[in-house]
Specification:
Elements (H helix, E strand, L loop, with lengths): L5 H12 L10 E7 L4 E6 L5 H8 L28 E7 L2 E7 L4 H13 L5
Antiparallel strand pairs: 1-2, 1-3, 3-4
């Protein structure tokens, strides 16, 4: 499966933000699997957190949210945040995405926290 970087996804997000027709609406169909086997299904528009996800993909966000492959040269704090993981798979604006985030360093923790707070597992 092809992985997409934040830049590609941001460009797609910007293209979908242009225009007023219903077909230009931000869409996403995602499954998030947490390491404790809890699952969250996300369908945008409509699901809680969709506006946060759309904003995170915008060019103004500037954060590393949704990078399919983390930059190996990015400086990250070397802190261990715990054994938890989450895997995101599905489609965002017509493009397939699949990636796993760990809590193994500051960069991974940042992205793990984004996903787990935006689309928390149900208890």
């Amino acid at each position: 499966m092809k992985y997409f970087t934040l830049t590609a996804i941001c460009c797609i997000g910007l293209l979908t933000a242009c225009g007023n027709s219903q077909s230009d609406q931000f869409t996403a169909e995602l499954n998030i699997l947490y390491s404790d086997k809890q699952k969250v299904a996300v369908a945008c528009p409509g699901a809680a957190g969709c506006s946060v996800l759309e904003q995170a993909l915008s060019a103004e966000a500037g954060g590393p949210v949704l990078t399919a492959e983390l930059d190996p040269n990015q400086a990250c704090t070397q802190i261990w945040g715990g054994p938890e993981t989450l895997t995101v798979s599905g489609v965002i604006v017509g493009e397939p995405v699949q990636f796993t985030r760990y809590r193994s360093n500051g960069c991974q923790i940042y992205e793990y926290d984004f996903w787990s707070k935006t689309f928390p597992p149900t208890s």
